[in-house]
Amino acid sequence: MKLSIFTSMTKPDERNDPWKEAMECYRDFADEVVVVGEKWPKEFTFEYIGEVFQEGFHKSTGDWVVLMDVDTFLHEKDKDKIRRVLDKYENFPAVAFPKFQFFLPQRFNFKSKMCIALNKKSFPNIRFDGGPDLCQPTVNEKLIKPDSAPYEKIVIWNYEAMFRTKDIIGKDRARFARAWFNSFGNYGDRGGPSEEEAYNAWFEMISKRYSFHYLKMKIEDHPIYIQKRLSNIPNDQFGHNMFGLADENKNFHLNNFIKTYKNYLVNYLLVK
């Protein structure tokens, strides 16, 4: 079985993306690593995201193709397991994996199941044009839903805005807010077109999500590729203390605590 990983990145150094660490990870896992999105325009629509993903899928020549955002990693302990798992599901268009979301290196939450492993050999007509954001995988014009796909316990480690400054986040969120408006005619929960509006909306969202980050993780238990960077986060980057939110948000939310551990137990710990 030939395994491809594709990712997209645009000016990753300006965005403080952990792209060098990510590429080391992807090359360790895959027979082929494909990079697209280098010429991503400043202004775009959400349909364009699906087009970039489609380009990555098209350029990938593997039997199985894994889509990885450049801020996501696989753990080295799963390097052999992922191939065994994908070999089992030759008749399925996709396999779903769990996603761990980190804002700080020491805390995380089980965010969701993700259909990012795609069976190109048996389903070469997969498209990235589904879901509310128009860039989720579909086959025969039907959305590939994580709950209907085989599910395996190979974690996608997601570091969100961990290494970004306020300025980088504001610019990035404003671009995506305008892209959402360009596609759907409203800003939804993305604030507005300006960097300040978009940043404030993002920070409000992050504050709510952080109230579910009760699960703990030691830096030495993260994928080896990213450990050094997690150990040396500058004061002006989000992952240092979430721009002060980590110091302010010390309230214990019993309902959120129960939901967090129940979700983790059912969707991860008890999964065979």
Could you explain how this protein is built, in words?
The longest helix has 19 residues, at 166-184. Helix 4 crosses helix 5 (195-210). The protein is α/β, with parallel strands linked by helices. The two termini are 24 Å apart. The chain is globular. A hairpin with a 2-residue loop joins strand 8 (136-139) and strand 9. It has helices spanning 19-29, 46-59, 79-88, 166-184, 195-210, 227-230, 238-241, 245-248, 254-269; strands at residues 3-8, 32-36, 64-67, 72-73, 94-104, 107-119, 127-130, 136-139, 142-143, 156-158, 215-216. Helices cover 36% and strands 21% of the residues. The mean pLDDT is 96. Strands 1, 2, 3, 4, 5, 6, 10 and 11 form an 8-stranded mixed sheet that branches.
SSE arrangement:
Blueprint lengths: L2 E6 L10 H11 L2 E5 L9 H14 L4 E4 L4 E2 L5 H10 L5 E11 L2 E13 L7 E4 L5 E4 L2 E2 L12 E3 L7 H19 L10 H16 L4 E2 L10 H4 L7 H4 L3 H4 L5 H16 L3
Parallel strand pairs: 1-2, 1-3, 5-10
Antiparallel strand pairs: 3-6, 4-10, 5-6, 6-11, 7-8, 8-9
